Amino acid sequence: MSEASLSHILVIGAGPVGMTAALALRHQGLPVTVLEAEPKQRVRPGSRAIFIHKASLKHLDEIFPGLAGTFAADGIVWPVKRTFWRGKEVYVRRYPAPQPNALPPFTSLPQVRAEAHLFAACEAAGVQFVWEDGATKVESSPEGVAVTTQSGKVWHAPYVIGADGAHSVVRKQIGVQMKGTRSANTFIVVDIQEDEANPLPLERVFHYQHPAMDGRNVLFVPFAGGWRVDLQLFETDNADDYNGEEGVRRWLPRVMDKKYAERITWVSAYQFLQVVAESFCDAHARVLLVGEAAHLFAPFGARGMNSGIADAVAAAQAIRQALASGGDAAKAAVRSFEQERRAAAEYNRDAAGTALHHIQGRAFPINIQRRLAAAIAPLFPKAGRWLDEGPYGPKTGPSLASKY
Ligand SMILES: Cc1cc2nc3c(=O)[nH]c(=O)nc-3n(C[C@H](O)[C@H](O)[C@H](O)COP(=O)(O)OP(=O)(O)OC[C@H]3O[C@@H](n4cnc5c(N)ncnc54)[C@H](O)[C@@H]3O)c2cc1C
User: Fold this and answer.
1) Could you tell me which of 154, 126, 160, 167 has the C-alpha nearest to residue 31?
2) Is the C-beta atom of 13 inside 6 A of ligand 1?
3) What is residue 210's predicted lDDT score, i.e. its pLDDT?
4) What is the CATH number of domain 2-78+103-181+273-355?
5) Could you tell me the residue ranges of all domains in the chain?
6) Interval between CA 162 and ligand 1 midpoint (Å)
7) Nearest ligand 1 atom to alpha carbon 111
């Protein structure tokens, strides 16, 4: 069976980036169908992305006015952040409350809730969804793309956006490889439901070398309805000793009130990949890769979903330009997207790598720098700030907002 519609754009994958791409295409006035491998009623595990940058909120509001306000109203902004060195506070910063009616500097919201808002916006914007029928084959030519799905249907489209995540079939089908490295040690990522009757203060807290965890780093990040606790293991640790609900119940009461050990909603162990696709489009400039189909970063700096949102907006803009121009100009529009977003991804990969090195590097210079900064932080607040900002990596560069 052939589903042919040469003006319809196909998006493969209904994750946050695929749904953003679909909304951005609708914003460009283009009809869109999203093909998703999983069923509509799926329950996605854990909260994963929680930190949504202002640049992403701005992008979302451009493509669906009011969406940033929906995200902000459902998320939280923490007014205080603290950093500790071996149990001693070395930095604290308090922020003024965000202006009413203005976009907050960020919002902290579980990815599942962000996805629910994106899906509602997609439905309102007229995006078509096909569930439980993932792409298995992608063939591009100078004229367009044919996508075969699990059910055997063949879809034809002038352009396809591949947003099918880390194990992207689309990327493999167009013959593009990922390049990069993997973090040496394991991170245990835990989500905990807040005790709403007696909540903790909304503070992001980072502990270098937490004394109660025998010197392992621990990060606490509040999000709407709960806490993300991130325990950074040593390379020599056996992750199984800390992983799973049982493992977490053994160590969590050392760093949080013991009641939270009964409020665990998700546990996962990661060795983070730091990889970027060698190209963000196929040889015919008809298939565009976005989000985790194109890049994977350690989450420090919250660059994964945020930069995926910028990829999606840029891809939709490039497709509109390509359809309007045709010929070589069409290819140039897609290749301009490819170059811009690949450069951004390489920057983000390196920035997340810098953050990893800052917080976990064991080499002599970074070890000394951290110790020295902690020692002088009471006298020189800049040193405390340097320790505090380490987990985010550099803030400048072409990272999160598309030029579009
Ligand atoms: C612990 C952790 C914390 C994180 N924190 C943050 C954060 O604070 N901020 C941030 O920006 N990022 C964060 N990230 C990264 C973020 O979760 C990802 O970048 C984001 O999920 C990527 O979205 P995506 O739409 O590209 O891919 P996915 O969310 O993986 O979605 C891909 C979709 O494609 C579908 N699919 C797969 N194969 C096919 C196929 N063949 N055909 C059709 N559909 C298919 C899948 O079912 C899925 O729905 C974090 C990640 C982790 C693991």
Assistant:
1) 126
2) yes
3) 97
4) 3.50.50.60
5) 2-78+103-181+273-355, 187-270
6) 12
7) 17
